[in-house]
Design brief:
There is one protein chain. The protein is of the alpha+beta class and 386 residues long. The strands form 6 sheets. It has a 7-stranded mixed sheet with strand order 14-15-16-17-20-21-22, sandwiched between helices. Strands 5-11-10-9-8-7 form a 6-stranded antiparallel sheet. The chain has a 3-stranded antiparallel sheet with strand order 1-2-6, with no helix packed on it. A hairpin with a 2-residue loop joins strand 18 and strand 19. Helix 5 packs across helix 7. The N and C termini lie far apart (92 Å).
């Protein structure tokens, strides 16, 4: 009898425990705080409402080429995009992208992108947004002085691209909602890449810090097995730091966006499109990552990493350098911060590049090299003799 009572008592305790456990789970699920959606007229803006910069920047280049003036710098123009509506930029204007297929417009109609329920994520497009809890210092009138339409609302918004197995890309922009004739409502980007003012403590990295991080990243890239293609790598912070710390900061124009970019930034562009699989050679000593530029695959990139020697070399296939336009075959720019001359690069590097040339059926007209002294040398003959 005593045993039966104890069993009954224990069962009762278990039931009470499970009830509390599931109740807590329910509460945690039910009351988890979701990002607030932008509400207007009892409807909610979805991620589709927000125009943002693609990873390749191709849409931004199309807008700048169509509306931008020659005497305006890229960053300044985008930071003050609202000032050009009603002048250089007609409201509701749209056009076909130079590559076809896509129709581009800075204007979004709310009727095409709102929802009766709060929606801040688009799972199919890996896109989300959140409202930044900061009131813009500027008014609609100061941000967009040439728009006659009534401004209904103004907010700072984080638009986030979050691809699987990749780091998130966050764009902080100011958007304004305007009411046109016949009560048509639109949303426009008024200031891109907005810097929210906040007090932060910045830790200055010493050379020793950088070297320590760099060495650990060489070990990471050698041993990692989760990221199998270049697109996944290019969204991984450790891979980007590995490249940034081991590539010259020299800037030059290769036609991969407006103005000069560092070698690292140029390489990011040509690795950001359709990817190849990551290759490992010689018991994972050598790592090869290859890809091409989004919407412009003739422009390509290759990264060669020697995890034992702790060295990085890169190749960019490009069609412009400085103000010169290349031939249809394009040129190669080879670079290595660890070597002064092309001949110092390993035989394995040249084998990899020659194999890449054969696979992609590409043949450079000229080959240039940037070594440890940051000078640009024509090494076409030397390369062809390898």
């Amino acid at each position: 009898m005593f045993l039966k009572k104890e069993i009954k008592k224990n069962n009762c305790v278990r039931v009470q425990f499970l009830f509390v456990f599931f109740a807590l789970m329910f509460c945690g699920t039910t009351f988890a705080k979701e990002p607030a959606a932008w509400k207007i007229d009892d409807k909610y803006l979805t991620p589709k409402c927000f125009m943002y910069e693609w990873m390749s920047s191709d849409n931004f280049e199309e807008f700048f080429n169509r509306y931008g003036s020659e005497n305006k710098k890229w960053e300044d123009w985008w930071s003050n995009i609202g000032e050009y509506y009603g002048k250089q930029i007609p409201l509701e204007d749209s056009f076909e992208a130079s590559w076809g297929r896509d129709t581009l417009s800075l204007t979004r109609y709310l009727k095409d992108c709102i929802s009766p329920e709060p929606v801040t994520k688009d799972e199919l497009k890996f896109l989300s947004y959140s409202i930044v809890d900061v009131t813009p210092e500027e008014s609609c009138k100061s941000l967009a002085p040439n728009i006659i339409a009534k401004c209904l609302d103004l907010k700072v918004v984080n638009v986030v691209q979050s691809f699987p197995a990749m780091s998130s890309e966050v764009h902080t922009n100011i958007y304004g909602i305007f009411e046109l004739a016949q009560q048509n409502k639109i949303i426009l980007p008024l200031k891109m890449n907005y810097l929210v003012k906040k007090k932060t403590e910045t830790k200055i990295q010493t050379n020793a810090d950088i070297e320590k991080i760099s060495l650990s990243n060489f070990e990471w890239i050698k041993n990692q097995n989760k990221l199998s293609n270049t697109n996944q790598l290019i969204w991984e912070d450790r891979f980007l730091k590995l490249l940034e710390y081991n590539i010259s900061s020299k800037s030059l124009y290769l036609g991969l966006g407006k103005g000069k970019k560092t070698l690292f930034e140029n390489l990011e562009v040509v690795l950001g499109g359709p990817p190849d699989k990551v290759e490992y050679l010689s018991n994972r000593r050598y790592v090869i990552a290859k890809a091409c530029r989004g919407h412009s695959c003739p422009e390509k990139g290759l990264v060669f990493i020697d995890t034992e020697a702790k060295e990085v070399a890169g190749v960019i296939r490009h069609f412009f350098i400085h103000d010169l336009k290349m031939t249809e075959d394009g040129d190669f720019l080879i670079f290595s911060k660890n070597h002064k001359t092309l001949n110092e690069l390993s035989d394995v590097f040249f084998e990899v590049v020659k194999k890449w040339i054969k696979e992609k059926k590409i043949s450079p007209t000229k080959v240039r090299f940037i070594g440890s002294d940051d000078s640009i040398k024509d090494v076409t003959k030397k390369f062809l003799n390898k």
